[in-house]
């Protein structure tokens, strides 16, 4: 659970493996702020065998 909270913090990069060294750690932080500004949500859940599944939910257009 703690890792799920950390992924939304600026410049946070969780250990992914020896071959993954790209990214600044800002992507999910920015995405979450943008979608929440439009009354949406961003959530993350583990995906097997490794990684995350990111779910983005936006309200219907009026």
CATH superfamily: Histidine kinase-like ATPase, C-terminal domain
Alpha-carbon distance between the two ends: 34 Å
Helix-and-strand structural type: alpha+beta
User: What is the strand arrangement across the widest sheet?
Assistant: 1-2
Q: How large, in whole angstroms, is the Cα Rg?
A: 13 Å
Please state the overall shape, judged from the principal axes of the Cα atoms. globular
Q: Secondary-structure blueprint of this entry?
A:
Elements: H1 2-6, H2 27-37, E1 41-46, E2 52-57
Antiparallel strand pairs: 1-2
Task: Supply database-style keywords.
globular, 62 residues, Heat Shock Protein 90, 26% helix, alpha+beta, two-stranded antiparallel ribbon
Overview in brief:
With 62 residues, this protein is an alpha+beta fold.
Describe this structure in words.
By secondary structure, this protein is of the alpha+beta class. The protein has a single domain (2-57), classed as 2-Layer Sandwich (Heat Shock Protein 90). It is 26% helix and 19% strand. The protein has helices at residues 2-6, 27-37; strands at residues 41-46, 52-57. The chain is globular, with a radius of gyration of 13 Å. 0% of the residues are buried. The model has no long low-confidence stretch (mean pLDDT 77).
């Amino acid at each position: 659970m703690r890792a799920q909270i950390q992924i939304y913090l600026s410049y946070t990069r969780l250990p992914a493996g020896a071959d993954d060294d790209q990214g600044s750690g800002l992507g999910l932080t920015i995405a979450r702020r943008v979608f929440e500004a439009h009354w949406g949500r961003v959530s993350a859940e583990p995906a097997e065998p490794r990684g995350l599944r990111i779910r983005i939910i936006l309200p219907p257009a009026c």
